[in-house]
Specification:
By secondary structure, the chain is an alpha+beta fold. The chain has 2 domains: 112 residues, Ribosomal Protein S5, domain 2, CATH 3.30.230; 151 residues, lpxc deacetylase, domain 2 (lpxc deacetylase, domain 1, 2-Layer Sandwich). 20% of the residues lie in helices and 34% in strands. The strands form 5 sheets. Strands 11, 12, 13, 14, 15, 18 and 19 form a 7-stranded mixed sheet that branches. Helix 1 packs parallel to helix 2. The longest helix is centred in the C-terminal third of the chain and has 14 residues. Bound molecules: zinc ion (ZN). Zinc ion (ZN) binds next to helix 1 and helix 4.
Length: 275
């Protein structure tokens, strides 16, 4: 458990393709003295923070002064798991690379770079009062608790069905980090017709067929799909700028609701305390 502000111990780079653009993109990670994670694209510094989120339809996209970076959630989850609070990420395209569809390669890069600790604290946000947001049959709520504790329920057609998972101490839940993103077979054609997911393949997503998983290797974990929804939620929660301590219950949540939850949380300073 980290207590203080941290950054990476040395510079490193990661290259891959964007899921939606299909274009190669390189990230360069630089140590940062200032608190928080921020992207630098086209000379614009964009804090990776909930109040910079401009689109949540396909992924979490942050924007500022005419520059935007999409699909930040898996990278943000990797920062959370690595315990990194301060970092500058230079990016040469508009979308964070999808890599294997999980946070694994980002996490490995950070782990190899190592962690440098600053004397300042103020990295934890402790929830003081329950906050909840709802949209149709989806909802997510957070209440006071002494760890980040997440219970996630997802519901898709068979063979996925309804899956539920609880992770009571997220900081040490390493099976979440390499759980991959997924899509239903019938959605692929529509997405491609819309000119999206140009970089999508069985190398970076789990594809759910009518009877079984399409990927020849199958799943990495029996609960990989619900694990991945937890990964997305962790990444989105880290756009709070803090390591949240609270008990989260989520039902069919996604990037939009996750962002609304943070806006609701920050709308009243008595909902939380920072230390
Ligand atoms: Zn995801």
């Amino acid at each position: 458990m980290i207590k203080r502000q941290t950054t990476i111990n040395r510079i490193f780079k990661i290259t891959g393709i964007g899921l939606h653009t299909g274009q190669p993109v390189t990230l360069e990670f630089l140590p940062r003295r200032e608190f928080g994670i921020a992207f630098v694209f086209k000379g614009v510094t964009i804090p990776a923070r909930y109040d910079m989120v401009a689109d949540t339809r396909l992924s979490t996209l942050i924007a500022s002064e005419g520059a935007s970076v999409s699909t930040v959630e898996h990278l943000m989850a990797a920062f959370y798991f690595s315990g990194i609070t301060n970092c500058l990420v230079y990016i040469d395209g508009p979308e964070v690379p999808i890599l294997d569809g999980s946070a694994w390669e980002f996490y490995q890069g950070m782990w190899k770079a190592g962690v440098y600790e600053f004397p300042e604290n103020g990295v934890y946000l402790k929830v003081q009062r329950q906050v909840e947001v709802t949209l149709n049959d989806a909802w997510v709520r957070i209440k006071p608790h002494n760890t980040l504790d997440i219970t996630m329920t997802i519901e898709f057609r068979q063979p996925v069905g309804k899956q539920k998972k609880r992770v009571s101490d997220v900081e040490n839940a390493f099976a979440i980090i390499n759980s991959r993103t997924f899509t239903l077979l019938e959605e692929i054609e529509a997405i491609k017709k819309a000119g999206l997911a140009k970089g999508g393949s069985l190398d970076n997503a789990v594809v759910i067929g009518m009877d079984d998983i399409v990927n020849p290797q199958g799943l990495r974990y029996r609960k990989e799909l619900v694990n991945h929804k937890i990964l997305d939620l962790i990444g989105d929660l880290y756009t709070s700028g803090y390591r949240i301590m609270g008990k989260v219950e989520a039902h069919k949540t996604g990037h939009h609701l996750n962002n609304l939850l943070l806006k609701e949380l920050f709308s009243d300073p008595s909902n939380y305390s920072i230390y």
